[in-house]
Protein backbone atom coordinates (compact mmCIF):
# COMPACT_ATOMS: atom_id res chain seq x y z
CA UNK A 1 0.00 0.00 0.00
CA UNK A 2 1.13 3.53 -0.73
CA UNK A 3 3.01 5.54 1.88
CA UNK A 4 0.90 8.44 3.15
CA UNK A 5 3.77 10.91 2.67
CA UNK A 6 4.24 9.81 -0.95
CA UNK A 7 0.49 10.07 -1.55
CA UNK A 8 0.48 13.59 -0.11
CA UNK A 9 3.45 14.50 -2.31
CA UNK A 10 1.68 13.17 -5.41
CA UNK A 11 -1.51 15.00 -4.43
CA UNK A 12 0.33 18.30 -4.08
CA UNK A 13 2.07 17.96 -7.45
CA UNK A 14 -1.21 17.05 -9.15
CA UNK A 15 -2.95 20.06 -7.60
CA UNK A 16 -0.25 22.40 -8.90
CA UNK A 17 -0.50 20.93 -12.39
CA UNK A 18 -4.28 21.33 -12.43
CA UNK A 19 -3.91 24.97 -11.36
CA UNK A 20 -1.48 25.60 -14.23
CA UNK A 21 -4.51 25.24 -16.54
CA UNK A 22 -2.60 24.09 -19.62
CA UNK A 23 -5.72 24.15 -21.80
CA UNK A 24 -5.19 22.91 -25.34
CA UNK A 25 -7.96 24.03 -27.70
CA UNK A 26 -6.14 22.83 -30.81
CA UNK A 27 -4.60 26.16 -31.71
CA UNK A 28 -0.81 26.43 -31.84
CA UNK A 29 -0.80 29.29 -29.34
CA UNK A 30 -2.85 27.40 -26.73
CA UNK A 31 -1.66 24.85 -24.17
CA UNK A 32 1.09 26.74 -22.39
CA UNK A 33 2.49 23.41 -21.22
CA UNK A 34 5.78 25.12 -20.42
CA UNK A 35 4.19 26.13 -17.10
CA UNK A 36 4.03 22.51 -15.99
CA UNK A 37 7.41 21.76 -17.58
CA UNK A 38 8.97 24.45 -15.38
CA UNK A 39 7.15 23.03 -12.35
CA UNK A 40 8.40 19.50 -13.06
CA UNK A 41 11.92 20.68 -13.78
CA UNK A 42 12.02 22.37 -10.39
CA UNK A 43 10.53 19.29 -8.70
CA UNK A 44 12.85 16.74 -10.30
CA UNK A 45 15.91 18.98 -10.16
CA UNK A 46 16.20 18.53 -6.40
CA UNK A 47 17.33 14.95 -7.05
CA UNK A 48 20.27 16.08 -9.16
CA UNK A 49 18.64 14.59 -12.26
CA UNK A 50 19.50 16.00 -15.62
CA UNK A 51 16.42 17.07 -17.49
CA UNK A 52 16.01 18.26 -21.06
CA UNK A 53 13.31 20.62 -22.28
CA UNK A 54 12.01 20.86 -25.83
CA UNK A 55 9.84 23.71 -27.10
CA UNK A 56 9.06 23.40 -30.83
CA UNK A 57 6.53 26.24 -30.54
CA UNK A 58 6.50 29.06 -27.96
CA UNK A 59 4.97 27.73 -24.75
CA UNK A 60 4.52 24.18 -26.08
CA UNK A 61 7.13 22.57 -23.86
CA UNK A 62 7.94 18.93 -23.09
CA UNK A 63 10.35 17.59 -20.47
CA UNK A 64 12.54 14.47 -20.54
CA UNK A 65 14.45 12.99 -17.60
CA UNK A 66 16.56 9.84 -17.66
CA UNK A 67 18.16 7.34 -15.32
CA UNK A 68 20.69 5.67 -17.58
CA UNK A 69 20.98 1.90 -17.44
CA UNK A 70 24.25 0.11 -16.81
CA UNK A 71 23.70 -2.37 -19.66
CA UNK A 72 23.10 -0.86 -23.11
CA UNK A 73 21.64 -4.18 -24.30
CA UNK A 74 18.97 -4.26 -21.57
CA UNK A 75 15.41 -3.17 -22.35
CA UNK A 76 14.41 0.43 -21.66
CA UNK A 77 11.16 1.78 -20.20
CA UNK A 78 9.41 5.11 -20.83
CA UNK A 79 6.87 6.49 -18.37
CA UNK A 80 4.93 9.06 -20.38
CA UNK A 81 2.25 11.51 -19.32
CA UNK A 82 0.86 14.55 -21.05
CA UNK A 83 0.51 17.93 -19.36
CA UNK A 84 -2.20 19.52 -21.51
CA UNK A 85 -5.92 19.30 -20.81
CA UNK A 86 -9.05 19.87 -22.88
CA UNK A 87 -11.22 23.00 -22.59
CA UNK A 88 -13.94 23.11 -19.98
CA UNK A 89 -17.28 24.82 -19.42
CA UNK A 90 -17.30 25.66 -15.69
CA UNK A 91 -21.10 26.02 -15.71
CA UNK A 92 -21.45 22.23 -15.61
CA UNK A 93 -19.11 21.75 -12.66
CA UNK A 94 -19.81 21.47 -8.96
CA UNK A 95 -16.33 22.87 -8.16
CA UNK A 96 -13.95 25.28 -9.87
CA UNK A 97 -12.39 23.10 -12.61
CA UNK A 98 -8.95 24.60 -12.06
CA UNK A 99 -8.97 24.80 -8.28
CA UNK A 100 -7.31 21.45 -7.62
CA UNK A 101 -9.36 21.34 -4.42
CA UNK A 102 -9.05 18.31 -2.15
CA UNK A 103 -12.53 17.31 -0.95
CA UNK A 104 -13.27 14.10 0.94
CA UNK A 105 -10.11 12.49 -0.38
CA UNK A 106 -10.68 13.47 -4.02
CA UNK A 107 -8.66 15.98 -6.03
CA UNK A 108 -10.99 17.96 -8.29
CA UNK A 109 -10.11 19.60 -11.58
CA UNK A 110 -9.68 19.33 -15.30
CA UNK A 111 -7.04 16.69 -15.95
CA UNK A 112 -7.56 14.81 -12.69
CA UNK A 113 -8.10 11.53 -14.61
CA UNK A 114 -7.01 12.67 -18.10
CA UNK A 115 -4.18 12.36 -17.31
CA UNK A 116 -2.40 14.65 -14.87
CA UNK A 117 -2.92 12.02 -12.18
CA UNK A 118 -0.61 9.68 -14.08
CA UNK A 119 1.82 12.41 -15.14
CA UNK A 120 2.20 13.52 -11.50
CA UNK A 121 2.45 10.03 -9.98
CA UNK A 122 5.05 9.01 -12.57
CA UNK A 123 7.13 12.09 -11.72
CA UNK A 124 6.98 11.29 -7.99
CA UNK A 125 7.96 7.66 -8.62
CA UNK A 126 10.81 8.72 -10.90
CA UNK A 127 12.14 11.16 -8.29
CA UNK A 128 11.92 8.61 -5.49
CA UNK A 129 13.75 6.03 -7.58
CA UNK A 130 16.49 8.55 -8.28
CA UNK A 131 16.71 9.56 -4.62
CA UNK A 132 17.05 5.89 -3.65
CA UNK A 133 20.13 5.48 -5.84
CA UNK A 134 18.31 3.31 -8.38
CA UNK A 135 20.87 1.87 -10.82
CA UNK A 136 18.96 -0.27 -13.30
CA UNK A 137 20.37 -2.41 -16.07
CA UNK A 138 17.92 -0.85 -18.51
CA UNK A 139 17.36 2.88 -18.93
CA UNK A 140 14.33 4.51 -17.33
CA UNK A 141 12.91 7.63 -19.02
CA UNK A 142 10.25 10.04 -17.81
CA UNK A 143 8.46 12.17 -20.39
CA UNK A 144 6.00 14.95 -19.62
CA UNK A 145 4.74 15.74 -23.09
CA UNK A 146 2.77 18.56 -24.68
CA UNK A 147 -0.11 18.60 -27.15
CA UNK A 148 -1.54 15.12 -26.65
CA UNK A 149 -5.07 16.51 -26.74
CA UNK A 150 -4.64 17.85 -30.30
CA UNK A 151 -3.05 14.98 -32.23
CA UNK A 152 0.42 15.32 -30.66
CA UNK A 153 1.74 17.60 -33.39
CA UNK A 154 3.96 19.63 -31.04
CA UNK A 155 4.49 16.83 -28.53
CA UNK A 156 5.09 13.11 -29.05
CA UNK A 157 4.87 13.26 -32.83
CA UNK A 158 7.44 16.06 -33.00
CA UNK A 159 9.75 14.37 -30.49
CA UNK A 160 9.74 11.02 -32.31
CA UNK A 161 10.45 12.77 -35.60
CA UNK A 162 13.09 15.23 -34.32
CA UNK A 163 14.49 13.93 -30.99
CA UNK A 164 13.94 10.19 -31.24
CA UNK A 165 17.07 9.21 -29.27
CA UNK A 166 15.95 11.34 -26.33
CA UNK A 167 12.56 9.67 -25.90
CA UNK A 168 12.47 6.27 -27.59
CA UNK A 169 12.24 3.19 -25.38
CA UNK A 170 11.53 -0.49 -25.94
CA UNK A 171 8.54 -0.33 -23.61
CA UNK A 172 6.13 2.55 -22.98
CA UNK A 173 3.41 3.07 -20.38
CA UNK A 174 0.97 5.94 -20.67
CA UNK A 175 -2.78 6.45 -20.14
CA UNK A 176 -4.97 4.85 -18.97
CA UNK A 177 -6.51 1.47 -17.93
CA UNK A 178 -6.04 -0.11 -14.53
CA UNK A 179 -9.50 0.58 -13.12
CA UNK A 180 -10.73 -2.33 -11.02
CA UNK A 181 -13.52 -4.36 -12.59
CA UNK A 182 -14.92 -6.91 -10.13
CA UNK A 183 -16.05 -10.24 -11.57
CA UNK A 184 -17.06 -13.62 -10.20
CA UNK A 185 -13.54 -14.74 -11.08
CA UNK A 186 -11.76 -11.94 -9.17
CA UNK A 187 -10.76 -8.38 -10.04
CA UNK A 188 -9.85 -7.70 -13.67
CA UNK A 189 -7.48 -4.87 -14.56
CA UNK A 190 -7.72 -3.74 -18.21
CA UNK A 191 -4.48 -2.91 -19.99
CA UNK A 192 -4.91 -0.77 -23.10
CA UNK A 193 -2.91 -2.79 -25.60
CA UNK A 194 -4.48 -1.18 -28.65
CA UNK A 195 -6.25 2.03 -29.60
CA UNK A 196 -8.66 3.06 -32.28
CA UNK A 197 -7.57 5.12 -35.23
CA UNK A 198 -8.80 8.58 -36.10
CA UNK A 199 -10.31 9.57 -39.42
CA UNK A 200 -11.17 13.14 -38.45
CA UNK A 201 -12.98 14.71 -41.37
CA UNK A 202 -13.93 18.22 -42.41
CA UNK A 203 -17.02 18.39 -44.60
CA UNK A 204 -17.85 21.40 -46.77
CA UNK A 205 -21.44 21.88 -47.89
CA UNK A 206 -22.08 24.59 -50.44
CA UNK A 207 -25.24 26.45 -51.36
CA UNK A 208 -26.27 29.74 -52.97
CA UNK A 209 -26.33 33.03 -51.06
CA UNK A 210 -29.49 35.12 -50.88
CA UNK A 211 -31.45 37.51 -48.71
CA UNK A 212 -32.72 36.08 -45.44
CA UNK A 213 -36.07 37.81 -45.90
CA UNK A 214 -36.82 35.66 -48.97
CA UNK A 215 -36.02 32.06 -48.00
CA UNK A 216 -38.52 30.37 -50.35
CA UNK A 217 -36.83 27.91 -52.76
CA UNK A 218 -33.32 29.00 -51.73
CA UNK A 219 -30.34 26.66 -51.72
CA UNK A 220 -29.50 27.18 -48.05
CA UNK A 221 -26.23 25.40 -47.22
CA UNK A 222 -27.15 25.37 -43.52
CA UNK A 223 -30.40 23.50 -44.18
CA UNK A 224 -28.53 20.92 -46.25
CA UNK A 225 -25.88 20.66 -43.54
CA UNK A 226 -28.56 20.01 -40.93
CA UNK A 227 -29.70 16.99 -42.92
CA UNK A 228 -26.07 15.87 -43.29
CA UNK A 229 -25.65 16.02 -39.51
CA UNK A 230 -28.91 14.14 -38.98
CA UNK A 231 -27.87 11.35 -41.34
CA UNK A 232 -24.43 10.97 -39.80
CA UNK A 233 -25.90 10.90 -36.30
CA UNK A 234 -28.45 8.28 -37.32
CA UNK A 235 -25.94 6.10 -39.16
CA UNK A 236 -25.47 2.69 -37.54
CA UNK A 237 -22.48 0.74 -38.89
CA UNK A 238 -22.28 -2.97 -38.20
CA UNK A 239 -20.57 -4.20 -35.06
CA UNK A 240 -17.16 -5.84 -35.41
CA UNK A 241 -15.60 -8.45 -33.11
CA UNK A 242 -11.84 -7.91 -33.34
CA UNK A 243 -9.20 -9.91 -31.49
CA UNK A 244 -8.53 -7.43 -28.65
CA UNK A 245 -12.24 -7.26 -27.85
CA UNK A 246 -12.49 -11.06 -27.94
CA UNK A 247 -9.52 -11.38 -25.56
CA UNK A 248 -11.11 -8.87 -23.19
CA UNK A 249 -14.52 -10.52 -23.11
CA UNK A 250 -13.09 -13.99 -22.65
CA UNK A 251 -10.71 -12.72 -19.97
CA UNK A 252 -13.55 -11.10 -18.02
CA UNK A 253 -15.26 -14.49 -17.54
CA UNK A 254 -18.72 -13.01 -17.90
CA UNK A 255 -21.76 -15.27 -17.57
CA UNK A 256 -22.27 -17.31 -20.71
CA UNK A 257 -25.21 -15.27 -21.99
CA UNK A 258 -23.27 -11.98 -21.69
CA UNK A 259 -20.17 -13.45 -23.32
CA UNK A 260 -22.29 -14.72 -26.18
CA UNK A 261 -24.00 -11.34 -26.66
CA UNK A 262 -20.73 -9.39 -26.48
CA UNK A 263 -19.11 -11.65 -29.09
CA UNK A 264 -22.08 -11.61 -31.47
CA UNK A 265 -22.10 -8.51 -33.71
CA UNK A 266 -25.82 -9.02 -34.29
CA UNK A 267 -26.62 -9.33 -30.61
CA UNK A 268 -24.62 -6.33 -29.45
CA UNK A 269 -27.39 -3.79 -29.99
CA UNK A 270 -29.78 -5.49 -27.57
CA UNK A 271 -26.99 -5.97 -25.03
CA UNK A 272 -26.04 -2.29 -25.17
CA UNK A 273 -29.54 -1.18 -24.25
CA UNK A 274 -29.30 -3.07 -20.96
CA UNK A 275 -25.98 -1.59 -19.80
CA UNK A 276 -25.35 1.49 -17.61
CA UNK A 277 -24.65 4.65 -19.60
CA UNK A 278 -20.87 4.79 -19.25
CA UNK A 279 -20.40 1.09 -19.93
CA UNK A 280 -22.78 1.11 -22.90
CA UNK A 281 -20.87 3.94 -24.54
CA UNK A 282 -17.57 2.15 -24.04
CA UNK A 283 -18.77 -1.24 -25.30
CA UNK A 284 -20.33 0.41 -28.35
CA UNK A 285 -17.14 2.33 -29.12
CA UNK A 286 -15.01 -0.82 -28.70
CA UNK A 287 -17.04 -2.71 -31.29
CA UNK A 288 -18.08 -0.06 -33.83
CA UNK A 289 -16.58 2.58 -36.03
CA UNK A 290 -18.04 5.73 -34.51
CA UNK A 291 -19.17 8.99 -36.13
CA UNK A 292 -19.69 12.11 -34.00
CA UNK A 293 -20.50 15.53 -35.55
CA UNK A 294 -18.73 17.94 -33.22
CA UNK A 295 -18.12 21.36 -34.84
CA UNK A 296 -20.09 23.52 -37.29
CA UNK A 297 -19.19 26.86 -38.83
CA UNK A 298 -21.84 28.59 -40.96
CA UNK A 299 -23.21 31.92 -42.00
CA UNK A 300 -21.98 35.49 -41.94
CA UNK A 301 -25.03 37.56 -40.99
CA UNK A 302 -28.61 37.02 -39.83
CA UNK A 303 -30.14 38.29 -43.07
CA UNK A 304 -27.83 36.37 -45.46
CA UNK A 305 -28.65 32.86 -46.66
CA UNK A 306 -25.38 30.94 -46.06
CA UNK A 307 -23.60 29.53 -49.07
CA UNK A 308 -20.98 27.51 -47.15
CA UNK A 309 -21.03 25.33 -44.05
CA UNK A 310 -18.03 23.52 -42.60
CA UNK A 311 -18.64 20.50 -40.40
CA UNK A 312 -16.08 18.56 -38.39
CA UNK A 313 -16.74 14.89 -37.75
CA UNK A 314 -14.84 12.81 -35.20
CA UNK A 315 -14.55 9.36 -36.78
CA UNK A 316 -12.79 6.56 -34.88
CA UNK A 317 -11.79 3.38 -36.69
CA UNK A 318 -11.27 -0.13 -35.36
CA UNK A 319 -8.14 -2.28 -35.61
CA UNK A 320 -7.78 -3.61 -39.14
CA UNK A 321 -9.76 -0.82 -40.79
CA UNK A 322 -8.19 1.65 -43.20
CA UNK A 323 -9.09 5.12 -44.41
CA UNK A 324 -10.79 3.81 -47.53
CA UNK A 325 -13.28 1.77 -45.50
CA UNK A 326 -13.98 4.73 -43.21
CA UNK A 327 -14.54 6.98 -46.22
CA UNK A 328 -16.91 4.42 -47.72
CA UNK A 329 -18.96 4.30 -44.51
CA UNK A 330 -19.13 8.10 -44.37
CA UNK A 331 -20.40 8.23 -47.94
CA UNK A 332 -22.90 5.49 -47.14
CA UNK A 333 -24.19 7.61 -44.25
CA UNK A 334 -24.54 10.65 -46.54
CA UNK A 335 -26.47 8.69 -49.15
CA UNK A 336 -27.67 10.84 -52.05
CA UNK A 337 -26.11 13.91 -50.42
CA UNK A 338 -22.59 12.55 -50.86
CA UNK A 339 -22.18 14.44 -54.13
CA UNK A 340 -23.05 17.70 -52.31
CA UNK A 341 -20.23 17.30 -49.78
CA UNK A 342 -16.50 17.90 -50.09
CA UNK A 343 -14.55 15.70 -47.67
CA UNK A 344 -11.05 16.27 -46.28
CA UNK A 345 -9.79 13.66 -43.83
CA UNK A 346 -6.85 12.92 -41.55
CA UNK A 347 -6.19 9.17 -41.62
CA UNK A 348 -4.41 7.98 -38.47
CA UNK A 349 -4.97 4.19 -38.29
CA UNK A 350 -5.39 2.06 -35.19
CA UNK A 351 -2.29 0.65 -33.46
CA UNK A 352 -1.76 -2.43 -31.32
CA UNK A 353 0.88 -4.13 -29.16
CA UNK A 354 1.21 -7.82 -28.33
CA UNK A 355 0.60 -9.16 -24.83
CA UNK A 356 3.29 -11.85 -24.82
CA UNK A 357 5.97 -9.39 -23.71
CA UNK A 358 8.23 -8.85 -20.67
CA UNK A 359 6.30 -5.66 -19.84
CA UNK A 360 3.01 -7.54 -19.66
CA UNK A 361 4.64 -10.15 -17.42
CA UNK A 362 6.09 -7.43 -15.20
CA UNK A 363 2.74 -5.65 -14.85
CA UNK A 364 1.11 -8.98 -14.03
CA UNK A 365 3.61 -9.80 -11.27
CA UNK A 366 3.39 -6.35 -9.70
CA UNK A 367 -0.39 -5.93 -9.81
CA UNK A 368 -1.05 -9.39 -8.40
CA UNK A 369 0.65 -8.17 -5.22
CA UNK A 370 -1.00 -4.74 -5.15
CA UNK A 371 -4.56 -5.85 -5.92
CA UNK A 372 -5.61 -9.13 -4.33
CA UNK A 373 -7.03 -11.83 -6.64
CA UNK A 374 -6.52 -9.66 -9.72
CA UNK A 375 -5.58 -10.48 -13.30
CA UNK A 376 -4.80 -8.38 -16.35
CA UNK A 377 -7.02 -8.31 -19.43
CA UNK A 378 -6.24 -6.63 -22.76
CA UNK A 379 -8.49 -3.75 -23.74
CA UNK A 380 -8.99 -1.24 -26.54
CA UNK A 381 -8.50 2.50 -26.02
CA UNK A 382 -11.40 4.10 -27.88
CA UNK A 383 -9.78 7.53 -27.89
CA UNK A 384 -6.27 8.36 -29.00
CA UNK A 385 -3.04 8.48 -27.01
CA UNK A 386 0.59 9.23 -27.75
CA UNK A 387 1.28 5.49 -27.65
CA UNK A 388 0.51 5.31 -31.37
CA UNK A 389 3.66 7.26 -32.28
CA UNK A 390 5.85 4.95 -30.21
CA UNK A 391 4.20 1.76 -31.44
CA UNK A 392 4.85 2.84 -35.02
CA UNK A 393 8.47 3.58 -34.07
CA UNK A 394 8.86 0.01 -32.76
CA UNK A 395 7.95 0.22 -29.06
CA UNK A 396 5.58 -2.00 -27.13
CA UNK A 397 3.10 0.50 -25.72
CA UNK A 398 0.45 -0.06 -23.04
CA UNK A 399 -2.04 2.20 -21.34
CA UNK A 400 -2.16 1.48 -17.63
CA UNK A 401 -2.23 2.88 -14.10
CA UNK A 402 -3.92 1.68 -10.92
CA UNK A 403 -7.20 2.99 -9.60
CA UNK A 404 -8.86 2.18 -6.30
CA UNK A 405 -12.38 0.90 -5.81
CA UNK A 406 -13.37 4.40 -4.62
CA UNK A 407 -13.46 5.45 -8.27
CA UNK A 408 -16.37 3.61 -9.84
CA UNK A 409 -15.93 2.70 -13.48
CA UNK A 410 -19.18 4.45 -14.40
CA UNK A 411 -17.84 7.73 -12.96
CA UNK A 412 -14.41 7.19 -14.50
CA UNK A 413 -15.86 6.63 -17.96
CA UNK A 414 -18.04 9.74 -17.96
CA UNK A 415 -15.45 12.13 -16.49
CA UNK A 416 -13.08 11.97 -19.49
CA UNK A 417 -13.56 15.37 -21.16
CA UNK A 418 -16.69 15.72 -19.02
CA UNK A 419 -17.88 17.56 -15.93
CA UNK A 420 -16.71 17.17 -12.31
CA UNK A 421 -13.47 15.39 -13.17
CA UNK A 422 -11.77 14.13 -10.02
CA UNK A 423 -9.50 11.38 -8.70
CA UNK A 424 -9.11 9.88 -5.24
CA UNK A 425 -5.86 9.96 -3.31
CA UNK A 426 -5.79 6.19 -2.88
CA UNK A 427 -5.59 5.86 -6.67
CA UNK A 428 -2.73 8.36 -6.77
CA UNK A 429 -0.83 6.37 -4.16
CA UNK A 430 -1.47 3.04 -5.88
CA UNK A 431 -0.21 4.39 -9.20
CA UNK A 432 2.96 5.79 -7.65
CA UNK A 433 3.73 2.44 -6.04
CA UNK A 434 3.01 0.71 -9.35
CA UNK A 435 5.52 2.81 -11.30
CA UNK A 436 8.32 2.20 -8.81
CA UNK A 437 7.61 -1.52 -8.65
CA UNK A 438 7.39 -2.01 -12.42
CA UNK A 439 10.62 -0.06 -13.00
CA UNK A 440 12.45 -2.28 -10.52
CA UNK A 441 10.86 -5.51 -11.78
CA UNK A 442 11.52 -4.85 -15.46
CA UNK A 443 14.82 -2.98 -15.45
CA UNK A 444 16.91 -4.22 -12.52
Write up what this structure looks like.
- By secondary structure, the protein is of the alpha+beta class.
- The protein folds into 2 domains: 4-183 and 351-443, Zn peptidases (Aminopeptidase), CATH 3.40.630.10; 197-237 and 291-349, Alpha-Beta Plaits (2-Layer Sandwich).
- 36% of the residues lie in helices and 23% in strands.
- It has 15 helices and 19 strands.
- The chain has helices spanning 4-19, 34-45, 116-131, 156-162, 164-167, 221-234, 243-252, 256-262, 268-273, 277-287, 323-334, 358-370, 387-393, 409-415, 425-443; strands spanning 51-54, 62-67, 77-82, 102-103, 106-108, 140-145, 171-174, 181-183, 186-195, 197-206, 210-211, 290-298, 304-305, 308-317, 341-348, 351-352, 374-381, 396-399, 422-424.
- The strands form 5 sheets. It has a 6-stranded mixed β-sheet, with helices on both faces. Strands 8, 9, 16 and 17 form a 4-stranded mixed β-sheet that branches. A 4-stranded antiparallel β-sheet has the order 12-14-10-15.
- The longest helix has 19 residues, at 425-443.
- The model has no long low-confidence stretch (mean pLDDT 95).
Amino acid sequence: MADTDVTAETTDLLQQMIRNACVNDGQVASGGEVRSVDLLEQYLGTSGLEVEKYEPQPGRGSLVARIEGTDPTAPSLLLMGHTDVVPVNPDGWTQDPFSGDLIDGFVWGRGAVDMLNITASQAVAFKHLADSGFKPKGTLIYLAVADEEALGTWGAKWLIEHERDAVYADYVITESGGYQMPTADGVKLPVLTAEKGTFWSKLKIRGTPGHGSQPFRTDNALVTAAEVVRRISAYQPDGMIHEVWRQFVEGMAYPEEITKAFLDPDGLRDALSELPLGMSRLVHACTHTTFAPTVMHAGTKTNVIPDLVELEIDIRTLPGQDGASARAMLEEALGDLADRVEIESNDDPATESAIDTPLWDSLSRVTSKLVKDSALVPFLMVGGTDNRFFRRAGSVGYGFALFSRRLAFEDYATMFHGNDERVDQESLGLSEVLWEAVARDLLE
